[in-house]
Amino acid sequence: MRIFRYSTTAVILAGVISFYFPSTLYAKNDNKHEVHRVTFDGAIKNNTLAMNPNEKMAVVASSENSEVVIYDLVNGKVQGVLKNYVTPRNIIFAPDGKSFYISDSSKGVVDRIDSESFQTIDQYAIGPGAFGTALNSDGKALYVNNQSSDSVTVMNTETGVAQAVIKGFAQPRQGVQLSPDGHRLYVTNFLGDKITIVDTAGNKIIGEISGFNKIRAISVTGDGKTLFAANSGSNTVAVVDIASQKIMLSIPVGEQPYGAALSPDGGFIYSGNLIDNSVSVIDAKKLSVITTITGFDHPRQALVFTRDNKYAYVLNQDLSLSKIERATQKIIDTLKL
Predict the structure, then answer these.
(1) pLDDT (tens digit, 9 = 90+) per residue, 142-186?
(2) Which CA distances in Å does 301 have to 33, 111, 121, 198?
(3) What's the alpha-carbon Rg for the chain, to the nearest Å?
(4) Dihedral sign computed on CA atoms, order 61, 66, 72, 77
(5) Distance (Å, whole) CA 5 – CA 85
(6) Strand order in the sheet with 120-125
(7) Strands 77-82 vs 16-20: parallel, antiparallel or unpaired
(8) Residue 89 and residue 66: Cα distance in Å, rounded?
(9) Model pTM score
């Protein structure tokens, strides 16, 4: 169903645009005169980072912060801050880059934001627990995990109507990925530590991969044959043969890995290690760690690469953005809020 649009008011301060929305996000403690966030699932923590197709903008958020920050990657500055969130969970750009989507599990919605005006142009009511998101190649089908109702909602972004609600998951959170051909959807289940495979043509569950340990982020190779998954419970990245639906190898990385981001050329996997404040770099052919990059602040799932494979961006706990030069495997810049 089509949901209403919010009106916004923009305030320009020091060249940064902040948008304030009319909904109530906080509860006031009259005894202590303090303001606190009221969350649906605030004990669950994650972060998110999306870069637009022309690689000039990055949008970042942490579930522990009500602000969504927009970075101008060309000038290395903050371009805007969106205020109307409680527990922002996942951000993803439309294929044409004209809009991006933000899920909020406490509000139970996914907002569609215009990439130029930063105004909310659509809102999809998914229900409390709306978490991970994925878009198909033409941007017409939006898949939304709901970790509270153990479901995945398939939204038609042109009509705003839910095409299907798929049941049978167990706390599906941020991990949701489409195969390169779009025929399969891979959904992580935090409860039970497994990946559920969905046939997107019929929106039906057709398989399951088990044996993970506190599974976090996942990625799928370009040929659709191999899947990588971060295991924060065993400090490994699992290598999965999709055809046999089995874990073939577990690669030791840093402490509490959350990320499993595959470079565009398919040559490397980056794993953000929360406790080590590091990123493990895995050679996808050798299936071993070739180096460890340090100097981050509690990195999690939020890692992206530029298409030319020259740079990678990693989100830190304070919503600053570290830029890695991949030739030297070192941080060369940090964008700060």
Answers:
(1) 999 999 999 999 999 999 999 999 999 999 999 999 999 999 999
(2) 35, 21, 27, 22
(3) 19
(4) negative
(5) 15
(6) 88-93, 99-104, 109-114, 120-125
(7) parallel
(8) 10
(9) 0.90
